[in-house]
Amino acid sequence: MSTLTIAHFFSGLLPARCAAESLYRGALAMRRRALGEGHPEISQTLGLLGSLLRRKGDLVAAESVYVRAIEISRLALGDEHPDLIHTINGLAIVYRDQGDAREAEALTRRVLAIRRRALGGEHPAIAVSLTQLGGILQGRGRYDAAEPLLLEALAMRRRTLGDGHPQVGESARALIGLYESQGRVSSTRAYEPFVVAQASAGGPAGAR
């Protein structure tokens, strides 16, 4: 089992995240010696480390690691390579959690654009980006801009995943939350059946 595999396993266990960080940093040092700083695998390892640091709540360190990972990927692979998606998205979440909604929005729009070009018209990953962007816009009070994105995500998930899928329920809850934040309680009723359908199918009641 590789060092990265072991680190990835530990990264999901809260008490073991310090051990996982040490393993990631060790793997990063070995890869730097073997491959050089500009190799795409360095960016991949930095992205994994950034995700771990973000989950630990060390947002400042996560931001620095993500930024470096993106710089390496851009030089090695270009600005539009799909391998950039997860790292850029991780950095967007860091900015969101730091309260920098403007930067979070810009990066999430970039991820959405790359996913649309790479994956085509309809794909669950595109719906994820639509939902994230809608949530950021809602947080900024831009309800009119958030609504069409969340509606598109719901429609896409219904077509690609089916009405009982947990992600359909997630989209329905996002729309309900948007309408409730505007006092549009009557508008929520059309989406309540999707949440009920998800619960009946055994999906998590509060997944996000």
Report on this model:
The chain is mainly α and 208 residues long. The protein has ten helices and no strands. It has helices at 3-11, 17-35, 40-56, 59-77, 85-97, 101-119, 124-139, 143-161, 166-181, 192-200. Helix 3 (40-56) runs parallel beside helix 5 (85-97), helix 5 runs antiparallel to helix 6 and helix 8 packs antiparallel against helix 9 (166-181). The longest helix has 19 residues, at 17-35. The chain is elongated, with a radius of gyration of 19 Å.
Principal-axes shape call: elongated
CATH superfamily of the largest domain: Tetratricopeptide repeat domain
Q: Can you count the helices? A: 10
Structural class: mainly alpha
Poorly predicted sequence stretches spanning 5 or more consecutive residues? 1-14
**What is the β-strand count?**
0
User: What number of domains?
Assistant: 2
Characterize the main sheet: none
State the distance separating the first and last CA atoms.
32 Å
> How would you spell out the order of helices and strands?
HHHHHHHHHH
State the CATH class of the largest domain.
Mainly Alpha
Q: Beta-strand level of the residues, as a percent range?
A: under 5%
Helix fraction?
over 70%
Mean pLDDT: 88
Named at the architecture level, the CATH assignment of the largest domain is Alpha Horseshoe
What is the CATH topology of the largest domain?
Answer: Serine Threonine Protein Phosphatase 5, Tetratricopeptide repeat
What is the radius of gyration computed over CA atoms, rounded to a whole number of angstroms? 19 Å
